[in-house]
Design brief:
The protein has 185 residues and is of the alpha+beta class. It has five helices and seven strands. It has a single domain, classed as START domain (Alpha-D-Glucose-1,6-Bisphosphate, Chain A, domain 4, 2-Layer Sandwich). It is elongated and about 70 Å long.
């Protein structure tokens, strides 16, 4: 009897992982462009975060810092490795390690000096991460970031994931600010 219960738990968990992956792919395939993004964040995801920062650096420096994906480990403390497949452009893929997790990502939006976004998947979680750039003046850039996170683990542990996502988004913005401003000093 216990064996059947354990088997049922395993089957249910595997089914949840497949369903969540299917659900994420359906959202990606059926999403409509919004606000310069080919794929907007999923407003129905269990975990979402938004924030923005003003950076005392020209738009081109901020844009080039963020979109130079191969160099993320140089200025993002939690990113330890990045492997880019080809050029950084819409449709390109890259794999990276952040906070001990391996993530497979694909760039969905790359509008120079305006918008940059990617999707990412890891075991039990999928994300949409979008960045928008606004030139305040020739030496100041406003960066707006938003991310949605869905999947088995964010669904089950939404409070934990929300806290970590909010903290991570703020950290990403602060690290981008520091890296960009160092390039002009």
């Amino acid at each position: 009897m216990i064996l059947y219960i354990l088997l049922a738990i395993v089957v249910i968990n595997i089914s949840l992982f497949f369903y969540e992956n299917y659900s994420f792919n359906q959202y990606i395939d059926n999403s409509n462009p919004k606000d310069n993004m080919t794929i907007p964040i999923n407003e129905n995801a269990p975990v979402k975060s938004r924030n923005q920062i003003e950076i005392k650096a020209p738009l081109d420096i901020v844009w080039n810092t963020l979109t130079d994906v191969s160099n993320w480990p140089k200025w993002q403390k939690s990113v330890t490795e990045v492997k880019v497949d080809g050029r950084i452009e819409e449709g390109s893929s890259f794999e990276w390690k952040v906070g001990g997790l391996s993530i497979k990502s694909k760039i969905h939006t790359s509008k120079p000096y305006e918008a940059f976004g990617w999707t990412g998947t890891t075991i039990g979680a999928s994300a949409i991460h979008n960045w928008t750039f606004v030139e305040k003046d020739e030496n100041t850039t406003i960066v707006i970031v938003e991310e949605s996170l869905q999947g088995v683990f964010p669904g089950l542990f939404s409070g934990y994931f929300q806290k970590n996502l909010d903290s991570g988004v703020l950290t990403n913005l602060m690290e981008l600010k520091d890296a960009s401003e160092k390039k002009i000093n």
